[in-house]
């Protein structure tokens, strides 16, 4: 279900501009170190960098060799070394070891550190402690927004959740504020702003300060985006802890979508090698099934395969001229579609095998019972058995978290497992058991254009003091822009929430744009919790 938009649906802004800006700024920074240089890249930045500036672009700007920053020492013979890193202490130690080893060997080179998206004082302190602060030049690559799809922007900061929500570290708030400032500079002011959560409130306040400092940047500009929502992940942990059942969510849960692409192994490709596949709206097959409940996907793909075969079969009765046209105009497209179809059928089969092995139906039944607040005793027994069998400690922890949060029943969805083929409600993303709370909040606030009448909800969420509305003084918003809604998830958002809001957009005539600190799912959430420093 690609969720075809209504004829009156507003056009999405062109976010390719963000990529061009990031690329130009990186090239400018690399050129600050004239001549040949080797580039050391932190592992986490390799995929985002590849989406912005590939190897050939880097080579054009005199980057000679590329190194992944790992524990083992790098053997570069270049006279100039450039380091592209996240602002992390361990990276500073890595650079310091390399520079100090050069000093011991009596070797002089030029060193440049490029922090992305910003540098932190703590990092400079480490460079000073290590005695190399004067030997390196430091710069910032303010690359904090990567367009993963036409409607999805990611800050690619998976550590945001752990740093802020688990360790209380507020250093990324400034990055969020600057990101919102960049968007309002490029796409005009946001007439209506709503937020919920402590992090959302702090980000909003800092963003407003930046707006005041740069007064005039967006003055007189017509807004392209009418509404912006800022949501903290801890307002709705339930959605992020649930197993996903829409296709894109299941692909993420099963294979891990990283930076908009996925590695399909031999079990999917039906060959002896893995394949990296970009998953976005350009993949026509994927775009039609991404938001679909998994129970419908096989039927759709087999129908697609039959249609494709029928198009191939048309060749039989063709004369030479028709065959020539067919080969030049249609064959390439059909082959591409056939390749994508085979991949997604392979992915579905692989998901089915894994889920059958894990007794997925029983797991989903337990989750839905927890969400709806019944059969608690049976659910508790299932979780205890899960722990006894030592199936997966992370999974057991996830189920215990879900039990703990939903003890009084969380469901606000209609009981409709029979309405998955033609969904009538956002609850279809969890088989009818539950509407993602984050999405229900957005729906209700958009209807009211405020938090009015939602006092009980805010009290239950312990957010009475943390919900806010901001309206810009000059409201030149067109009716089209008022149907464009930017939703910023602070601490990560799931593909289930994205699918639910795409559905809501189609039903109510909105188009949603998603901005997230990173795409998340239950496994990533649990891993972040187990990584917290003691």
UniProtKB/TrEMBL annotation:
The keyword Nucleotidyltransferase does not apply. Its main location: cytoplasm. It is a peripheral membrane protein. One of its GO terms (cellular component) is lysosomal membrane. Gene3D superfamilies: 1.25.40.850, 3.40.50.1910, 3.40.50.2060, Syntaxin Binding Protein 1, Chain A, domain 2. InterPro entries: Sec-1-like_dom1, Sec-1-like_dom3a, Sec1-like, Sec1-like_dom2, Sec1-like_sf, VPS33_dom3b. This is Vacuolar protein sorting-associated protein 33B. It comes from Pteropus vampyrus (Large flying fox).
């Amino acid at each position: 279900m690609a969720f075809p938009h209504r004829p009156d649906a507003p056009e999405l802004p062109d976010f390719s501009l963000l990529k061009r800006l990031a690329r130009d700024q990186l090239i400018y920074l690399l050129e600050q170190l004239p001549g040949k240089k080797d580039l050391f890249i932190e592992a986490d930045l390799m995929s985002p960098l590849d989406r912005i500036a590939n190897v050939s672009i880097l080579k054009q700007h005199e980057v000679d060799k590329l190194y992944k920053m790992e524990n083992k020492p790098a053997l570069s013979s270049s006279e100039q070394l450039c380091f592209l890193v996240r602002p992390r202490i361990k990276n500073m130690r890595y650079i310091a070891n390399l520079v100090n080893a050069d000093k011991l060997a009596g070797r002089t080179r030029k060193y440049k550190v490029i922090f992305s998206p910003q540098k932190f004082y703590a990092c400079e302190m480490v460079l000073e402690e290590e005695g190399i602060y004067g030997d390196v030049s430091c710069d910032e690559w303010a690359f904090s927004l990567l367009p993963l799809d036409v409607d999805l922007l990611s800050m690619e900061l998976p550590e945001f959740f752990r740093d802020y929500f688990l360790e209380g570290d507020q250093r990324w708030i400034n990055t969020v504020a600057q990101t919102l400032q960049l968007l309002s500079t490029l796409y005009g002011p946001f007439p209506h702003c709503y937020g919920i959560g402590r992090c959302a409130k702090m980000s909003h306040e800092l963003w407003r300060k930046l707006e005041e400092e740069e007064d005039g940047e967006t003055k007189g500009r017509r807004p392209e985006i009418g509404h912006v929502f800022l949501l903290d992940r801890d307002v709705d942990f339930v959605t992020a802890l649930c197993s996903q059942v829409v296709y894109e969510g299941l692909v993420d849960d099963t294979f891990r979508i990283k930076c908009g692409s996925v590695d399909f192994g031999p079990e999917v490709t039906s060959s002896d090698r893995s394949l990296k596949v970009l998953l976005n709206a350009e993949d026509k097959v994927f775009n039609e099934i991404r938001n679909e409940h998994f129970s419908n996907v096989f039927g759709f793909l087999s129908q697609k395969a039959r249609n494709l075969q029928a198009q191939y079969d048309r060749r039989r009765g063709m004369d030479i001229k028709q065959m020539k046209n067919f080969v030049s105009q249609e064959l390439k497209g059909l082959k591409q579609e056939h390749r994508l179809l085979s991949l997604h059928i392979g992915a579905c089969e692989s998901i089915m095998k894994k889920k059958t092995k894990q007794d997925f139906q029983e797991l989903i039944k337990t989750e839905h019972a927890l969400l709806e607040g019944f059969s608690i005793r049976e659910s508790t027994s299932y979780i205890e058995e899960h722990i006894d069998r030592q199936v997966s400690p992370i999974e057991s922890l996830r189920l215990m978290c879900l039990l703990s949060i939903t003890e009084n029943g969380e469901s606000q969805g209609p009981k409709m497992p029979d309405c998955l083929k033609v969904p009538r409600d956002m609850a279809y993303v969890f088989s009818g058991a539950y509407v993602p709370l984050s999405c229900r909040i957005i729906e209700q606030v958009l209807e009211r254009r405020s938090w009015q009448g939602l006092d009980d909800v805010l009290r239950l969420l312990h957010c009475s003091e943390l919900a806010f509305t901001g309206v810009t003084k000059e409201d030149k918003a067109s009716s089209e822009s008022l149907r464009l809604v930017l939703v910023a998830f602070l601490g990560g958002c799931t593909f289930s929430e994205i699918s639910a809001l795409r559905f809501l957009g189609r039903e109510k005539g909105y188009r949603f744009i998603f901005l997230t600190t990173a795409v998340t799912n239950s496994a990533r959430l649990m891993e972040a919790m187990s990584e917290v420093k003691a």
